[in-house]
Amino acid sequence: MSYQDKQPQPVQPMSIEGGNKNAKNLPVGPDGKRDWSFGLFGCCGDMGACCLGTWCPCLLHARNKRRLEHLNTQGTPHPNRHDVCNGDSCVYGLIEVAFDMGWILQIGTRGAIRERYQIRGSTGSDCMAAMCCGICDLVQGHRELELEENSFSGQA
To answer: I want to staple 88 with a disulfide (CB 3.0 to 4.6 A). Which of 59, 62, 152, 154 is the partner?
Structure first.
């Protein structure tokens, strides 16, 4: 038996696909990008998320971030996706209370959501949405994540 026979054989790299990233089947442009599934001002379409974002944006931001990270790393919805408290909510809350600038954390999360779902936009538009329409931004991200999560069980 030669040395080469003892070597492990190559395997396919692990692929974490996730659910349907365009659950509403929106048209995709030549650049491979699409629009958001829900408009920025469609925040009243999910009153629970809208209320949470209005009264405790730190909790909705932390929930969105945790759900996105779980989808990106595990390819499945977070098993406790409706839980709201974690370390990210504390960081957001402290920045919001101390400097009235919690929206800055939303820019990165919004950009990561846009990247995952191949949504048109830029860091500048992410900044403007988070700064000028923070609650609507949080709800829009929440609803985009929810579409993919629901597609796992056929609820989309």
So the answer is: 62
Report pLDDT for 15. 44
Q: How far apart are CA 21 and CA 118, in angstroms?
A: 9
Evaluate whether 136 touches 41 at the Cβ level (below 8 Å). Answer: yes
CA–CA separation, 55 and 68 (whole Å): 22
Backbone phi and psi for residue 109, each to the nearest 5 degrees, phi listed first: -65, -40
Q: What is the pLDDT of residues 55-81, one digit of tens each?
A: 999 999 999 999 999 999 999 998 887
- 121, with CB counted inside 10 A (0-12, 13-18, 19+), is middle
Report pLDDT digits (tens) over 44-54. Answer: 999 999 999 99
Cα(103)–Cα(58) distance, integer angstroms: 9
| Dihedral, CA of residue 70, residue 74, residue 77 and residue 79, to nearest 10 | -80
